[in-house]
Design goal:
Blueprint (H helix, E strand, L loop, with lengths): L6 E5 L4 H12 L3 E6 L2 H13 L4 E5 L5 H14 L6 E4 L16 H29 L2 E6 L12 H21 L4 E8 L5 H14 L3 H10 L9 H12 L10 E4 L6
Parallel strand pairs: 1-2, 1-4, 2-3, 4-5, 5-6, 6-7
Helix pairs in contact: 1-2, 1-8, 3-4, 4-5, 6-7
């Protein structure tokens, strides 16, 4: 197994990509601390992880609250005997859709920036001292292909995902001397309940059917198929394993060719 006995934290682990990433890491041998605000949903994922024979610790945490993040990391260190090998930052929000920049309210913009930027920064801040002491670690941030190109009508979300890339590249430079790899996996649209809500929201604004919006996404992809959670999880597994030993400060797009 690629991650045998590794100790990992996954934020935003309750649903969608986060749940798929968690079970994939466990399948490859990792013990997990899984965090989110929805503890009931986390417990369902934890049951799957335990069924794979791995440890699964559930910790309620708002990743934009520094006190909660600090406590979550402390809980992880206690559960794992003082070690953290992998951090995967999945937690995030989508924000306003089909909204021109002049119509985005300040509080909406601030909400997205806070969730997606600070929610990536704080777990890194509090995990890094342990990884530095170990002189090893893998940090994988979930960005997005909207952070690789402009994304009309999604200014807040696009700005936040560009920022995740900036955090990734800068922290990679800082931590390289400690044998810590920092990379980003950048999904395009992913087949999850969140995608369907996005399609429904766009359909409502445009006066389209949900299927028309879905088909538009597919048509924009070179491979003409929508990315699955497993596709993203496999990319995260690569970045979290020794297969990516000599890769840091990079982004890996998993989008079916949307950004080509």
């Amino acid at each position: 197994m690629k991650l045998e006995n590794k100790k990992a934290i996954v934020t935003g682990a309750a649903k969608g990509m986060g749940a798929e990433i968690s079970t994939t890491l466990a399948r490859e041998g990792a013990d997990l601390v899984m965090t989110a605000r929805d503890v009931a949903a986390l417990e369902k994922v934890a049951q799957k992880v335990r069924a794979l024979g791995r440890q699964a610790h559930v910790v309620a945490c708002d990743v934009t609250d520094e006190a909660q993040v600090k406590a979550m990391v402390a809980s992880s260190l206690q559960a794992f005997g003082g070690r953290i090998d992998i951090l995967v930052n999945v937690a995030g929000v989508t924000g306003p859709i089909e909204t021109p920049v002049q119509d985005i309210r300040l509080e909406e913009f601030d909400y997205v920036i806070t969730a997606n930027e600070i929610g990536t920064f704080l777990p890194i801040k509090h995990v890094v001292p342990t990884m530095i002491a170990q002189r090893s670690g893998k940090i994988v941030n979930i960005g997005g292909t909207s952070g690789l190109r402009g994304y009309p009508m999604r200014t807040a979300y696009s700005a936040s995902k560009w920022a995740v890339r900036g955090i990734t590249r800068t922290v990679a430079i800082e931590l390289g001397k400690y044998n810590i790899n920092v990379n980003a996996v950048c999904p395009g649209i992913v087949e999850t309940p969140r995608m369907m809500k996005l399609c429904e929201g766009k359909a409502t604004v445009r006066g389209w059917t949900v299927q028309q919006v879905y088909d538009e996404y597919v048509e924009d992809m070179a491979l003409k198929r929508v990315t699955t959670g497993r596709d993203v999880a496999n990319a995260v597994l690569f970045m979290a394993s020794e297969d990516s030993r000599q890769i840091t400060g990079q982004h890996l797009a998993v989008d079916g060719g949307w950004d080509v």
